[in-house]
């Protein structure tokens, strides 16, 4: 997750990269995506994989996938994530994610494991987070 | 909403987030983070930090790492936090640890213990948190430590736990397949779990397993089909619905699995036809997610055993994708087309123009995808057009990764389908010129071989033409700066071999050019070596032809310089050249026969030419030769091998002693006597220091590359040249016969057609038709479809290609307008296309967004007339404005904002706030409009926290979903 200025707002990797590699990778792909206009398609090839990205107001959501993945489905997965966050935070905005970084991560943890989409029911995704909220 | 109560964080944290949020540059952000690191280093080691505070520190550490700085000083605190009793703290601890550490980090060992304990917890949320960590942190060595517990959890009463346990096993499988081989049956069992979430998760490991070995899972086809059927029939809980589609992500994964299982298996495929057909019918083609499922259906259909009905349905969907205005759908359409084209090549024809549009689209992603499609549909009839296009594209891009890929594809296609050798050489020249350092060096060898062999048959004149055209093109290119080394080698070789052959160019001209090359690339020994050998050949041919050799002064100085070179190879070549030049015509002709690079060199293995010499020596009392094995009494086979090694390493130092001479020494070329040959043998690099022979071996030194290659490839089927050329039936031979008369026919046709077009060019419509007829031509040449016209346009004759009959042109009219006005349409289409992204909350998108377009435009016109008139970047501006306007109601009118900010988006937003009425009207159409009160509350809260929306980054407050 990156904002319009290319600043990272949330990052999750499913294959380990060290700090340097992350920095370089993020810089490269963010530059590529921010340079595109809204008519162009939401997919960018980068080396051996593809970036699927989607913009919401000030935030860009970028997902790197390998070649076998269904790009359109990933695009909708991003929307599902945003809808889920919207349901939890109510009118979610960049600042919500910044203040509740761990919660955004928890949601993502419920939805994606080992790089696969495992859960797409909003109720199931949010249940543990709501329980935790209640407990504390 | 409950989560927002006061944010539960300290002022410090809020300040940090605020300052990061407002940082305007990476440098500013870095400064903030570096300062934060200092603070944290100091604070985090203080004694008795309250737990809540500690959690905050950990999150701050996460920020530090996320923004690209090292936070390793705090890792241990994250590890400690995983021990905490509080669920929230524990989970935060686990989260931080998974973000910080890779699975081989030293600290992991401290966590494994905690994980083991937590896996046994009564609180299922704790178990879930631990399983999440298992998926990230357990490596091959630690798998046994948690495996039994994970397996036990597969039977847990909570579905969330079962789901995560399955994924943990999946992780173990990814890490080390052997660790879970005995547990694979669990995946099969869990497929039948009565919780859809567990079932959906199980599809992930099953997909991986089936991708490796589909045969072991054929029995599951029926189960997968019935699950898919149930999903499509909406038997799953409503919570899995997404935009009215029943569990689309599960459907997609099931389709992927079926594609694997049905591939090349007719029986399995037949079980799938009904359900896939049902999905084709049921899918909502107006939503993105519906199209995503449809696309997956096409992938599945093109992978399983073909079924005509499904292929038809797939073709329909593809044509809808391609006709769409959305670039995303076009992209998917092109991709789907390239999958389906393998099974039914004829479907490409109807999409010719759409494909051409995509090819010419400024969007690089789309263009690249289209090239992939073209690559897959190349045949001998369209290879010229496709490769030309690819080369143009290759030249236009900078990214080496893609350049290499495209260059190798060009080479591959050219080698496979080249219609003529001449074309092949020209194409290779272009590839070398622009990407020479990126292509495989073998390609250079092949090119030289082709030029040397020519058509390989009795057509000598054609060969000569080919060579002289190659020489000419190289003389033209040779002066260019920065030619890749591999290409220069080819150039030098060809010039040396054939530069003076036609009599068109004088030796001094060619040698001058070669000297230039050697000088211009003084740091590249390989190029210099090629150049020197080429020089030698040119001189040798001159001498053999009886002409006097006047070595150019620059050439002389070059030779002198090289004879003192540090490279022994260069030195040797220079000396050889000097030696050759002093010989008489007869000797030179034998050493260096003209145009003999692919003659087989005859080798007399028995060395019969030495017989007289031996006899004479014996008469003079010399000892007779005793074979080595007789002398030592050993049969030494390994000597042969060492001999070979010796050959290959002639240029390096040898550390072992030289072998004794033996009769089975590598055969040599006879420089003196032309003894009758007994055998044909590949010529290894000569390695014997016999004076006379040394000189004789000269030609083979330079030619080894090509000769050896040639010999090795003998008997291998030719990739290009006559056979393939003539085989693709009449179509391709037609095309060349046209080519032959191109010069004549083209000229008169073009004169008539241009005059006609000039007449009609008053009418803008016909101008468009003209453009599209060009496109159509291109399409025809690519697809060879029904619109194929008399003449195939070659790459350079696009203008000539307009010479279609008027009837065709006319019939193309309306269609052409449609396709070529996309530029105009897209302006309108852009707002149509984008708002759904932001607003798409379930209502029928087409109508609502269409109605919401106009107010924007009006608004825009009211606010900013100058911008409204500049139609060029309408689309983009429209969209961003739409987003801003939609969400800006939540902001307080920023005072003095317009003076601070140069950003057009935000100024627009500011304007929008002045007319709140208009923006609210836009919301009326939405089922779930944003709630202004929520936003205001939130805003007030944020202000209390000390973050003011009027500061630099008002975007922070923008609702993502508008």
From TrEMBL, chain A:
Keywords: Membrane, Protein transport, Transport. The keyword Ligase does not apply. Its main location: membrane. Residues 2-135 form the AP complex mu/sigma subunit domain. Signal peptide: none annotated. One of its GO terms (biological process) is intracellular protein transport. It holds the Pfam family Clat_adaptor_s. SUPFAM superfamilies: SNARE-like (SSF64356). InterPro entries: AP_complex_ssu, AP_mu_sigma_su, Longin-like_dom_sf. It comes from the Eukaryota. It is found in: Endomembrane system. GO terms for cellular component: cytoplasm; endomembrane system. Belongs to the adaptor complexes small subunit family. PANTHER family: ADAPTOR COMPLEXES SMALL SUBUNIT FAMILY. This is AP complex subunit sigma. The lineage of its organism: Eukaryota, Viridiplantae, Streptophyta, Embryophyta, Tracheophyta.
TrEMBL record, chain B:
The lineage of its organism: Eukaryota, Viridiplantae, Streptophyta, Embryophyta, Tracheophyta. GO terms for molecular function: cargo adaptor activity. It holds the Pfam family Adaptin_N. GO terms for biological process: intracellular protein transport. Keywords: Golgi apparatus, Membrane, Protein transport, Transport. The keyword Repeat does not apply. This is AP-4 complex subunit epsilon. Belongs to the adaptor complexes large subunit family. SUPFAM superfamilies: ARM repeat. Subunit of novel type of clathrin- or non-clathrin-associated protein coat involved in targeting proteins from the trans-Golgi network (TGN) to the endosomal-lysosomal system. It comes from Vitis vinifera (Grape).
């Amino acid at each position: 997750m990156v904002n319009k200025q290319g600043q990272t707002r949330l990052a999750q990797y499913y294959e380990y990269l060290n700090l340097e590699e992350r920095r370089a990778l993020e810089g490269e792909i963010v530059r590529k995506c921010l340079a595109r206009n809204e008519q162009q398609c939401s997919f960018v090839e980068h080396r051996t994989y593809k970036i699927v990205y989607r913009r919401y107001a000030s935030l860009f959501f970028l997902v790197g996938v390998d070649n076998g993945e269904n790009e359109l489905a990933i695009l909708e997965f991003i929307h599902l994530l945003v809808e889920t966050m919207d349901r939890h935070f109510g009118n979610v905005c960049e600042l919500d994610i910044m203040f509740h970084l761990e919660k955004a991560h928890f949601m993502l943890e419920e939805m994606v494991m080992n790089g696969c989409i495992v859960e797409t029911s909003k109720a199931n995704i949010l249940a543990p987070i709501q329980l935790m909220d209640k407990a504390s | 909403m409950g989560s927002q109560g006061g944010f539960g964080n300290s002022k410090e944290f809020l300040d940090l987030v605020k300052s990061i949020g407002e940082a305007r540059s990476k440098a500013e952000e870095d400064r903030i983070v570096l300062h934060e690191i200092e603070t944290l280093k100091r604070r985090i080691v203080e004694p008795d930090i309250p737990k809540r505070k500690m959690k905050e520190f950990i999150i701050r550490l996460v920020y530090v790492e996320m923004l690209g700085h090292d936070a390793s000083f705090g890792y241990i605190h994250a590890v400690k936090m995983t021990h905490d009793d509080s669920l929230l703290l524990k989970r935060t601890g686990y989260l931080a640890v998974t973000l910080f550490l890779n699975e081989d980090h030293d600290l992991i060992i401290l966590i494994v213990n905690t994980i083991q304990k937590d896996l046994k917890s009564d609180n299922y949320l704790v178990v879930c948190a631990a399983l999440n960590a298992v998926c990230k942190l357990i490596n091959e060595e630690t798998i046994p430590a948690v495996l039994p517990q994970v397996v036990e959890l597969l039977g847990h009463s909570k579905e969330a736990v079962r789901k995560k346990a399955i994924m943990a096993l999946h992780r173990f499988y990814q890490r080390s397949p052997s660790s879970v081989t005995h547990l694979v049956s669990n995946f099969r069992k869990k497929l039948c779990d009565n919780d859809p979430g567990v079932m959906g998760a199980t599809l992930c490991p099953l997909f991986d397993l089936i991708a490796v070995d589909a045969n072991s899972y054929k029995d599951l086809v029926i189960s997968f089909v019935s699950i898919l059927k149930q999903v499509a029939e909406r038997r799953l809980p409503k919570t899995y619905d997404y935009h009215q589609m029943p569990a689309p992500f599960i459907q997609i994964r099931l389709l992927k699995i079926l594609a694997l299982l049905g591939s090349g298996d007719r029986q399995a495929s037949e079980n799938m036809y009904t359900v896939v057909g049902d999905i084709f019918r049921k899918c909502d083609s107006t939503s993105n997610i519906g199209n995503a499922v449809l696309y997956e259906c096409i992938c599945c259909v093109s992978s399983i055993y073909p079924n005509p009905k499904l292929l038809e349905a797939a073709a329909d969907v593809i044509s809808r994708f391609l006709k769409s205005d959305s670039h995303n759908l076009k992209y998917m359409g092109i991709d789907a087309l390239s999958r389906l084209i393998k099974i039914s090549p004829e479907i490409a024809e109807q999409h010719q123009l759409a494909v051409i549009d995509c090819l010419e689209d400024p969007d690089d992603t789309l263009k690249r995808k289209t090239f992939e499609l073209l690559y897959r549909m190349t045949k001998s009839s369209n290879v010229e057009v496709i490769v030309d296009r690819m080369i143009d594209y290759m030249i236009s891009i900078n990214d080496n990764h893609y350049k290499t890929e495209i260059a190798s594809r060009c080479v591959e296609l050219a080698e496979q389908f080249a219609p003529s050798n001449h074309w092949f050489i020209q194409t290779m020249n272009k590839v070398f010129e622009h990407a020479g350092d990126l292509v495989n060096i073998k390609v250079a060898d092949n090119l030289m071989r082709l030029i040397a062999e020519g058509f390989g048959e009795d057509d000598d004149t054609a060969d000569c033409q080919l060579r002289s055209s190659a020489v000419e093109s190289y003389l033209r290119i040779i002066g260019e700066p920065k030619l890749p080394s591999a290409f220069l080698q080819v150039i030098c070789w060809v010039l040396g071999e054939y530069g003076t052959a036609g009599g068109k160019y004088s030796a001094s001209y060619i040698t001058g050019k070669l000297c230039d090359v050697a000088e211009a690339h003084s740091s590249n020994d390989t190029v210099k070596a090629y150049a020197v050998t080429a020089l030698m050949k040119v001189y040798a041919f001159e001498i053999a032809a009886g002409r006097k050799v006047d070595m150019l002064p620059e050439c002389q100085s070059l030779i002198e310089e090289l004879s003192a070179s540090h490279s022994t190879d260069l030195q040797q070549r220079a000396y050889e050249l000097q030696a050759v030049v002093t010989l008489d015509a007869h000797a030179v002709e034998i050493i260096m026969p003209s145009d003999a690079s692919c003659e087989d060199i005859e080798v007399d293995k028995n060395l019969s030419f030495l017989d007289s010499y031996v006899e004479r020596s014996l008469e003079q009392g010399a000892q007779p030769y005793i074979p080595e094995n007789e002398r030592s009494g050993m049969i030494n086979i390994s000597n042969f091998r060492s001999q070979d090694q010796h050959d290959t390493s002639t240029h390096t130092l040898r550390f072992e002693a030289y072998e004794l001479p033996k009769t089975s020494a590598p055969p040599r070329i006879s420089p003196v006597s032309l003894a009758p040959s007994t055998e044909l043998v590949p010529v290894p690099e000569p390695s014997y220091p016999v004076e006379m022979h040394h000189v004789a071996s000269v030609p083979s030194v330079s030619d080894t590359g090509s000769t050896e290659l040639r010999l090795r490839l003998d008997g291998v089927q030719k990739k290009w040249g006559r056979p393939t050329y003539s085989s693709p039936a009449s179509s391709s031979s037609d095309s060349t016969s046209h080519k032959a008369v191109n010069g004549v026919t083209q000229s008169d046709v073009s004169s008539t057609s241009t005059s006609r077009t000039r007449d009609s060019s008053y009418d803008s419509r016909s101008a468009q038709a003209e453009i599209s007829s060009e496109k159509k031509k291109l399409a025809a040449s690519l697809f060879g479809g029904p619109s194929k016209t008399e003449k195939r346009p070659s790459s350079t004759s696009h203008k000539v290609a307009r010479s279609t009959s008027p009837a065709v042109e006319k019939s193309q009219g309306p269609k052409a307008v449609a396709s070529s006005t996309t530029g105009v349409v897209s302006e309108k289409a852009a707002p149509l296309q984008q708002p759904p992204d932001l607003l798409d909350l379930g209502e029928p998108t087409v109508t609502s967004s269409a109605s919401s377009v106009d107010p924007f435009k009006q608004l825009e016109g009211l606010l900013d007339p100058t911008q409204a008139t500049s139609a060029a970047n309408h689309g983009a501006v429209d969209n961003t404005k739409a987003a801003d306007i939609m969400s800006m109601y939540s902001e307080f009118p920023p005072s003095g904002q317009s003076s601070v900010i140069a950003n057009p988006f935000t100024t627009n937003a500011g304007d929008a706030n002045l007319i709140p009425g208009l923006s609210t009207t836009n919301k009326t159409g939405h089922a779930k409009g944003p709630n202004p009160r929520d936003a205001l509350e939130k805003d007030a809260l944020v202000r209390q926290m000390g973050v003011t929306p009027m500061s630099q980054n008002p975007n922070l407050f923008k609702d993502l979903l508008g």
